[in-house]
Design goal:
The complex is a heterodimer of chains A (about 180) and B (about 350). Chain A is about 75% helix and about 0% strand. With about 180 residues, chain A is mostly helical. Chain A is globular, with a radius of gyration of 21 Å. In chain B, a hairpin with a 4-residue loop joins strand 4 and strand 5. Classes of the chains: A mainly alpha (about 180), B alpha+beta (about 350).
Chain lengths: ~180, ~350
């Protein structure tokens, strides 16, 4: 397949002109507010621009169907939506966790933001793991439990815990920047 | 065996190599023999990509180290099935919570949304004095935040978090004709100065007041009970109740001189107090929490305080990271570990 010669900037520019408003409306209905919709709409186009510019510079074929621009846009936006909801749910859980900490153990304001950022990075890596694998991995990494203790907790064999751990490690190492 | 750091440029790692690295990590995590370690070292040395995978795993471990366990478990191990249904409302509250002082949000926060930017604040371990427009001198202890709300009727200070030592000024440039009372407000109520020098400390669910000179009148927020507390006395109050006054702790304001004083204090309580002056987590093993500690400790360097604990008490200090520290029972074989 021959490389598609095009100007990424120009192509995304016209995509933006023609469909930005519509995408923002679509996202607004999904999210229930215009603020986030505007942010995510911007992110969608930025992501597309970045991907196309990479393809352009590598002279690689661009794998997309411009005959259905809105379908394309919603596909990209949907992925961003998933991330967005995941970040929201993490932050809500984090807020709860902070609220139930005794004051003496509360991290400082500066630390709280750093910890949240770290949590986001870790959370992104755990996204594809099943609940049991994730639980086993977190019990090991955060609470320092032995495999025997984890096996006990999850009511599985130690060899299953080892399988879970290997799966989680592999996923995280792969996804880590 | 040490290796030169492999530059991580975000190039994708081969899944097969990630899988191998994972297998090594699992093998070494439980009962690693010298043979295992040597074999792993050999695998790492065999290919730069192996080493790159290994170093990703090390960075991963550091990331986990930075997260307090209970917080991390609750946040990361949450049920994700309802994720798509989340709404935006959580974020605003979170932003405000993150930028204000206390984790005990519902009980000790006094923050209408518009007031979350405090006029004066200190970071963990910081101590500072400010002078207000009426000549009052306020000393802020660690993790303290307050708003100044002077009006023609009153000189109010809204304590959002932490601990302050107040020396009220005479208000020489009072713009109004009448006397303006000096008032400190917390979630639990207000403390009106009837004299000059006192300490107000926001705790979890209560406000602590210690009067050094003059007197204050406390008003509880919900029940509107009033009580005058005079010099040499201290008390605690909630939104509903004001405790009977007790003799003031002579060391209640030592922090303004950079000192933490303990007289046969429970180690658990001492460390809880010390943790206010340190970022991160400082835990006390319940096995040693009841030990008694005495002394006058310089808050300028909390690391030194921790380092000296094993000199006088049968404890060890374990540093998981510089700011994630546990004080545990000293074992016969073990030694304090340092990062």
């Amino acid at each position: 397949m021959s490389a598609v010669q095009f100007d990424a900037q120009q192509q995304v520019g016209s995509l933006y002109r023609d469909h930005h408003g519509w995408l923002q409306g679509w996202l607004g209905r999904k999210l229930g507010n215009a603020f986030d919709a505007a942010d995510l709409a911007q992110d969608t186009f930025l992501r597309i621009l970045s991907a196309w510019q990479k393809a352009e510079s590598a002279d690689a074929p661009v794998d997309l169907d411009l005959r259905q621009p809105r379908a394309y846009l919603t596909t990209v936006a949907a992925r961003l939506l998933v991330n967005h909801y995941r970040r929201l749910s993490l932050e809500r859980a984090y807020l709860e966790a902070l609220a139930i900490l005794p004051d003496a153990q509360a991290p400082s304001t500066e630390d709280r933001l750093i910890i949240l950022e770290t949590l986001h990075q870790i959370d992104a890596m755990l996204g594809r793991l099943t609940a049991k694998v994730r639980t086993a991995f977190l019990l090991s990494q955060l609470e320092g439990l032995s495999y025997a203790d984890i096996a006990d907790r999850l009511q599985v064999h130690v060899r299953t815990v080892k399988r879970y751990m290997a799966e989680a490690y592999e996923e995280c190492i792969l996804l880590m920047a | 065996m040490s290796a030169t750091p492999i530059a991580e440029d975000g190039r994708p790692l081969d899944r097969a190599i990630a899988r191998q690295a994972a297998a090594w990590l699992v093998r070494l995590q439980e009962d690693a023999t010298p043979v295992d370690v040597a074999a792993c070292d050999a695998w790492r040395a065999a290919d730069a990509e192996h080493e790159r995978a290994w170093q990703r795993a090390q960075r991963l471990a550091h990331m986990f180290d930075a997260v307090p366990p209970q917080v991390g478990m609750h946040a990361l191990n949450r049920d994700r099935r309802g994720d798509a249904a989340q709404r935006r409302a959580a974020i605003k509250a979170l932003t405000i919570l993150l930028l204000t002082g206390s984790a005990g949000y519902s009980l000790s926060r006094n923050v209408p949304w518009r007031d979350w930017i405090s006029d004066e604040r200190t970071a963990t371990g910081e101590r500072r004095a400010v002078r207000l427009a009426d000549g009052s001198e306020i000393e802020l202890n660690t993790r303290t935040a307050f708003n100044v709300a002077f009006s023609p009727q009153e000189r109010a200070l809204i304590l959002n978090d932490g601990e302050i030592l107040v020396e009220t000024g005479h208000d020489p440039h009072n713009p109004s004709a009448i006397y303006r009372p000096f008032i400190v407000r917390t979630v639990q109520g207000q403390v009106r100065a009837l004299g000059t020098r006192f300490v107000v400390r926001q705790e979890y669910g209560a406000t602590q007041v210690s009067v050094l000179h003059g007197a204050v009148e406390i008003t509880s927020r919900d029940t509107v009970v009033k009580r005058v507390v005079a010099a040499g006395q201290q008390t605690r109050f909630t939104a509903r109740l004001i405790d009977p006054a007790a003799p003031v702790d002579p060391h209640v304001a030592d922090w303004s001189q950079g000192v933490l004083f303990a007289d046969q204090m429970r180690l658990g309580d001492f460390l809880a107090e010390l943790s206010r002056y340190r970022p991160g987590v400082l835990r006390c093993d319940p096995a040693v929490a009841a030990l008694r500690i005495s002394g006058a400790f310089q808050l300028r360097n909390t690391d030194d305080i921790l380092a000296a604990l094993p000199d006088t008490l049968p404890v060890g200090v374990v540093y998981r990271t510089r700011y994630w520290v546990s004080v545990v029972a000293a074992s016969g074989a073990g030694e304090a570990q340092r990062v």
